[in-house]
Amino acid sequence: MQTILEMRNITKCFGSVKALDNVNFQVEAGEIHALVGENGAGKSTLMNVLSGVHPYGTYSGEIIYQGKHCIFRSIRDSEKNGIVIIHQELALIPYLSIGENIFLGNERAKMAVIDWEKTHWDATQILRKVGLKENSHVLIKDLGVGKQQLVEIAKALAKNVQLLILDEPTAALNEEDADNLLRLLLELKKTGITSILISHKLHEVIKVADSITILRDGATIETLKVNHGEISEDRIIKGMVGRELVDRFPKRRPRIGDVYFEVRNWNVDDPLIDGRRVIKDVNIKVHKGEIVGIAGLMGSGRTEFAMSVFGKAYGKNISGQIFKEGQEIELNNVQQAINNGLAYVTEDRKTAGLIAIEDIKHNISLSSLKKISKRWIINDHQENEAALTYRQKLNIKSSSIFQKVQNLSGGNQQKVVLAKWIFAAPDILILDEPTRGIDVGAKYEIYTIINHLAEEGKAIIFISSELPEILGICDRIYVMNEGRIVGELMKEEASQESIMKCIMQSNRGRY
Amino acid sequence: METVKAKPVKFESIGFALKSNIRQYAMLIALIVIMLFFQIATNGILLVPMNVTNLILQNSYVLILAIGMTLCILTGGNIDLSVGSVAAFISAIVGTLIIRQKVDVTVSIVIGLIIGAVIGLWQGFWIAYVRIPAFIVTLAGMLMFRGLTNTILKGLTLSPFPKSFQMISSGYIPDLFPFFGSSFNLTPIVVSVILSIILLYFQIKKRRNKIKNETELIPRSLFVTQILFTLVAINLFAYALAAYKGIPIILVILGVLIGAYHFFTTKTVPGRYIYAMGGNEKAAKLSGINTNKVLFFVYLNMSVLAALAGIAFSARTDSAFPLLGTNFELDAIAACFIGGASATGGIGSVVGTIIGALVMGVLNNGMSIMGIGIDWQMTIKGFVLLMAVAFDVYSKNKAK
Q1: Rounded mean pLDDT of chain A?
Q2: Which residues of B touch A354 (CB under 8 A)?
Q3: Is omega for the bond preceding A271 within 30 degrees of 0, making it cis?
Q4: Min CA distance, B271 vs chain A (Å)?
Q5: Which of A37, A95, A342, B3 could bond to A215 as cystine, CB 3.0-4.6 Å?
C-alpha cells in the first residue's frame, strides 16, 4: 500500500492553548482511517488544518499529500486537490434542491450561466452512486438527516474527491441510516476513495475502519491496525482515556418506591401538518427513585412525547392525563410544568438548552430566578452561591462561573444544563439524549449525576438512541416506535436484541 | 469553631482584565478621545459650562429613546422604527390639549403618556402575540402616526407653550444654597459630593462581598482607577453645571430613568428575561420564560418612552410641528449599536447605550461649533457608526 497523506509534527495553538502538539498522522491510499479521541483531543482541529480551514502559516509542521508538500490557504485549495471535509453541522441550503446543493460552488455552468439540464442529469448520476433514491429537484428541507448526509457525500463526489473526511457523520442518524452510510463508505473504498472517519461510536469504527489513530490531549497516542474487527472497544477506550475503564456505567443500588408520575392515553398532533398524529395512546409510569428509559429510533416520537408532556412545549390537540402522586395535574405551559416539579433537559443543548453568549452563572439560575429573588429583584449573592455550588458539585471545568458557556466543551456544557435543572429542584426529570456528542469520561460523570438524582428519590425518564447506555443505566425500559409504546422491558430481560425485536415486530404488525 | 480561612483570591492580570472587557472600555475611551479632540479643535468651547449644559439639553430626547431602544434590541435585535412618529403624535396631542383646549399642563402630560402606553399596547400586540416582525409593525406605525400627527396639526405648527411646560426641558432646579452670590450654583456640587460618597460606599462594599465569595476578578489597581475616574468625571461635570445655571430639570428626569433602567436590566428577574430571550429564545422558553410577555412589555415600554421624548422635545423647541421627531429612531438605534449592543440580541447595556448616545451628541455638538455643515456631519456620523460596529465585530471574532 501506498501512503496518500502524511502530516508531520503538526503543532497548532489557539492563544496560549496548544490544541495540537507535534501530531503525526499517516493515511494509506484506499483505506478507511478512523480518528478517535475524547472531545477536545484535537481531532477536528487536525482535520481543519488538513482541509485549509486553518490556513497555512497558522500552524507549524508539514503536510505531504500524494507525495507533494502542500500549502493550503483555504478550503478551496484543499478541494482542488481532492480533499473534501464534511462537517458535523451539514452545510446544505435548505430551500435549494438536491441538485443545486450538490453543485453549489461548483456549478455546471457555461460563462456563468447555469446549465440546469446538465446539473440535474449529473446530479442524478451521482445520487445513484450514493444510493439515494430521490429526485434531484426535491428541496433539502424535505429530506431527513440521513438522506441529507448522503447529499453531502454526493456533493463531495461531484468535486472528484480522493480523500474524504467525515466528522461525526452518524451522530445524528438512527441505526438504519448509520448502517447505510457505513455501507456506502465501504462501497466508496472499493472505487479507490480514501476516507478519514471521526467518530465517537466505536462499534462503527471497528466495523468499517482499516486503521485507527487515537488522539489524546492534542497528541497522537497510537495507530492501531484493524484486522477483521479483532480489536475491542475497550482496547480503543483504553488508548483514548489513558487508563482502563473498568466499568462504563457506574453502579447503583436502586431503591424504587411507589408510582410517582404517570401519563395516560397521551395523544399529540403535529403542530405543522394538520391531522398527522405523532404520539398515539401513550401510557407510561415512573416510580420514585426509578430511572425509566425510553428507547427507540430517531424519529420514533420520543422527543415529541417528552416536550408535549413538559407544558405542551410541542404539538397541538394534545389529549390525555398526567398524574403526580396520584393527583391529576394540568401542565398547560412550561412555567406550570416547572412549578409542578418537572424538568426537561433538551436533546439539543446548543439551540434549546443553553444561552451560549451568557456565562455559567446566568445559565444555571435561569429556571430558578424566582427562588433567588425577592419582589423581582435578584439576590446577586445567592445567585453566585448557587453557581459556585453546582460548578463544584458537577465538576464543571471552567475558569470561573463568569466564563461564557459557548467556550466550554460539550461535556461541560451539558453539565451546565443539568445544573440548571437540578437547581430548579424538580421531582421528575426528563433527560433527552443527555450524553449526545460528549466523550467517554464526561459520560461517566453524567451517569453518576443521574444515579445520584435517582438515589435522592427523583423520578427519572431517560431518553437515548444509544442502546448500550439505556441498558446500562435504566431500571425499566419502554420501547417507542412511530409514536407508540411497543414494548416494556425490565432491566433483567432487556437486551439490544429484545429492544430491536419490539421495534421490528411493531413494524411488521403495521404492514 | 469559627475560624476565618484566608482564601487566596485569584485576580486576573490587568492586561487580561482590560482585554476581556475591551468592548466596554473601548467606547468610553473613544468618547474621551472625541471630547479631547473637539475640546482642542473648538479652542475649548466644547467644555465651557454653558455648552456642557447644552449637550445634556440637546440630547435628552435621544437618551430617553435610546434607553427604550436598548431593551428592544436586547430581545433579539428587534428595533422600533416608529418612535420618531410616536413622539410627534404625542407632542401634537399634548400641544393641542394645552394650547388649543387650554387643558392643565400636568393633566395633558399624563394623558400624553397614557396615549403612548395605548400605542405600545397596540404595537406590542401585533409584535408579541401575532408575531409579525417588529420591523414591519413599527414601519407601519412610523407611517400611521406620522399621518395622524399631520391630521391633528392640520399641517400647522403649534406654539407657544406656557412657561410651566417649557420648564421640563429648559428649567433648572433652584439653588438650595444661595450663599455665594448669584454666579455660582452650589447645589450640583453638594449633590455630586453626596452621590460620590454613596457610590464609593457601595462599590467598596460590593467588592468586599465579591472577594469574600471569590467571585471578584478585577485586580485592585484597575478597581481603584475605575472608581477614581468615575468620581472625577462626576465632580467635574457637577462643577460645569454649577458654573452655569445649576441642575437642569431634564437631567434629573434622565438620571432617574438611567438609574432605574440600569437597575431593571441588571438586577431584576424581568431584566434577566430580556437578556435570556435575546440570547436564545428557544432555550428561554424551555426554561419557563413567557417570551411573548417579555416582547410585549418591551414594546409597551418603548412607546411610553417615545411619548416622554416627544413631550421633552416639544418643551425644548416650544412647539409641536408636523416634522417633529423625523429620524429620531435612527439616532436612538445608532446610539445602541455604538454603545455595544449586538444586532442579534442578548448583548448590550443601558450604560453602554448612554455612552453611545453621548458619542453621537458630542460629535454633533462639536462639529456644529466648528461650523461643519450638516451634510458632512451626517457623513461623519455614519462613518463613526460603521467603525464602532466594525470594531465590535472584530474584537468578538478575535475573542473566539
Answers
A1: 88
A2: 280, 283
A3: no
A4: 9
A5: A37
